[in-house]
Every structure is written in C-alpha cells, then in structure tokens.
Amino acid sequence: MEPARSHSSPKPSALRWQILRRALLRRHSSDSSEEIILDKVSRRTRNGFDLIPAVLVNDGGEEGSDALPKRDACFSYSLPLHNAPKLFLRQRWEDCLDLNDYKVCNQYDVDNTGLVCQWPSEDVLAYYSLSHLDLFRGKSVIELGSGYGLAGFVIATATDASEVVISDGNPQVVDYIQRNIDANSASFGSTKVRSMVLHWDQVEGLDICGAFDLVVASDW
C-alpha cells in the first residue's frame, strides 16, 4: 500500500468556498499561486472575452458633483458598428458587496449574482445580438436575469427593435438598469426601453404573457 501523501490537493468544493470567502473579505492581495489554484475551479474568465471593447470613464474615487459612490464605476462600451455608437453603463466594482446587499437578497428571496460583476456570458449574448441585427428589427424583446444588462442595451441601441425590456429579480440590479436607461436614452432612437423587476416563478398579476416576440437570456 502506498504511503499517504503529506500535501494532498484541496478538493474543488473547498476551493470554491475560498473564492466566496475572498469575495466577502474583499481580499485583493492574494499571492499568485493562490490565484492560479482558484482560477482552476472558477467558472468565469478573469477579464471576460473582450468582444465589445470597454474603457473606464469614471469611478468612485473621483470627486465632484458627478462623482459616483466609491463602490461604483462607469464604463464606456464601443459597439463595433459603422457609426460606432457608445454605451455608458454604471455598475459595481467586481466583488464589491456589503452586508446590506445580503439583507436585500434575504428580504426579496433573490441572489446577488447580477450585482457581483458583468458576467462573460452577457458579453457573448451582446456580441451575438450585434451579429444578428435583423433578428430583432421591429420586435418586442425581453431579457431575463440580465444583471447589468449589456445585451439588452446593445439590442436597444443597435437593432431597431420596437421595444426592449431589461429585467432582473434583484431590485438593486434593476435600479442600476434604470439609471443606465436614463443615461443612454438618446441612443435608443424610436425603441422603447424599460426596466422590470421580474422573478421567474412570480408572474401572477403581470400582464406579460404573449407580450414579447423574443426572449433572450445568458448564464455564466
């Protein structure tokens, strides 16, 4: 029988708990070896896929009347189209959560997935939408579980859809969506754009059945 190894590799489940712990404690000084190990079990890319170029234009460290809260940042997304339209989206700094965020989750029985970051799958859905503009033209579209809603904003800006509803179950996320709708309203042309708090299992009283031509969503 082989002797037991003194330094066995940690289980993936234990490593995922370390990812959660790091997010909660906001540890930004982890050593490189720890980062490499945790990246092996993380389901998301570190920098997204960079399918739609984005640059930081404002952050919470700046002062003045237009300054954002320290936990927020505003990014400018340049859509790869002939007229190069831009979207300005305000969102949280990655993994910048606090106790109040978890209180909201408990109060509304939702998670904070959409608040954590701009997920790479949203980049893919946004890029797919740009590659299939005719699919959305003249249509009423709803995005489910949008998080910060990059794809929904891209559809609203670039495809000549008649209506775009960007929805999420977390009311804090929807607050960000509405702020971004207000900030980018001049880019939507004749497309009607609105936000919605929508829980997939709580649709009673909502007059949305049969209201949309297309439903889009992305996950991780």
TrEMBL record:
InterPro entries in alphabetical order: CaM-Lys-N-MeTrfase, Methyltransf_16, SAM-dependent_MTases_sf
Assigned keywords, A-Z: Cytoplasm, Methyltransferase, Nucleus, Transferase
One Gene Ontology cellular component: nucleus
Protein's UniProt keywords contain Transferase: yes
GO aspect biological process, one term: methylation
Cited Pfam families: Methyltransf_16
Keyword Methyltransferase tagged: yes
UniProt enzyme class: transferase
Single GO MF annotation: calmodulin-lysine N-methyltransferase activity
Enzyme Commission (EC) number: 2.1.1.60
Subcellular location, record wording: Cytoplasm; Nucleus
Name used for this protein in its record: Calmodulin-lysine N-methyltransferase
Organism: Striga hermonthica (Purple witchweed)
Phylogenetic placement of the source organism: Eukaryota, Viridiplantae, Streptophyta, Embryophyta, Tracheophyta
